[in-house]
Amino acid sequence: METSARVCDTVGGDAVAAALEFDVFARSCPSRPTLEHVTGRWGALALGALVRGPLRFNELRRRVDGVSEKMLSQTLHALERDGLVHREAQPTNPPRVDYSLTPLGRDTADRLLALIDLVEARMPEVLEAQRRYDERTTTAAAAAGPRGGR
Predict the structure, then answer these.
(1) Are 132 and 139 in contact (CB under 8 A)?
(2) The pLDDT of residue 150 is above 70
(3) Residue 46 near residue 91, CB atoms below 8 Å
(4) Confidence at residue 23, expressed as pLDDT on a 0 to 100 scale
(5) Among 2, 38, 44, 131, fewest CB within 10 Å belongs to which?
(6) What's 119's DSSP letter?
(7) pLDDT on residue 7
(8) In what order do the strands lie in the sheet with 85-90?
(9) How many CB atoms lie within 10 A of CB 96?
């Protein structure tokens, strides 16, 4: 017996959302963009970096090696909007802005770190699988000839 409506079928107001179910597999579900923000390359790395404590923008940028200033800014705005990151601007000269995890952000980051730990621990298996795959596809491409077997 289903007792709650699916918000993904009828997106309602904020007050109603707490009582509704969400289905990330449904195209219109509002949980899907949040999942993308959390699991995207920069979102996951930003959340993981903030687990150790608050960081200023440039500290976070250095910790998340390879992210551009623009991408980090966009990522932090999305995570702040989703309630995962808290932005605190200090009225100093020059302005100081610190980023930290909210309780929801900490819970999310803890789960992401478990996944990150798993991936890092299993990288020898991943690298071996990649090597075997590349070897198979290189062999298959060579056997097909220069025109793909035509």
Answers:
(1) no
(2) no
(3) no
(4) 92
(5) 2
(6) H
(7) 54
(8) 55-56, 96-101, 85-90
(9) 12
* Tokens describing residue 126: 């991943």
Residues 6+ apart with CB under 8 A from 29: 7, 8, 22, 23
Q: Is 6 a residue whose pLDDT tops 80?
A: no
Residue type, 99: Y
Q: How confident is the model at residue 147 (pLDDT cuts 50, 70, 90)?
A: low
Q: Which residues contact 104 (CB under 8 A, 6 or more apart)?
A: 83, 84
Output the CA angle 138-143-148, nearest 5 degrees: 90
Q: Amino acid letter at 24?
A: V
Are 6 and 26 in contact by the 8 Å Cβ rule? The answer is yes
Going along 6-142, which residue ranges are E strands? 55-56, 85-90, 96-101
Tokens found for residue 82: 């989703």
Max Cα–Cα distance, the chain, nearest Å: 69
For the chain, helix (H) and strand (E) counts, in that order, are: 7, 3
Q: How many angstroms separate the Cα of 58 from the Cα of each of 14, 54, 64, 70?
A: 34, 12, 10, 12
Contacts of 108 (CB under 8 A, 6+ apart): 38, 47, 84
The two three-digit tokens of residue 23, written as one number: 């289905």
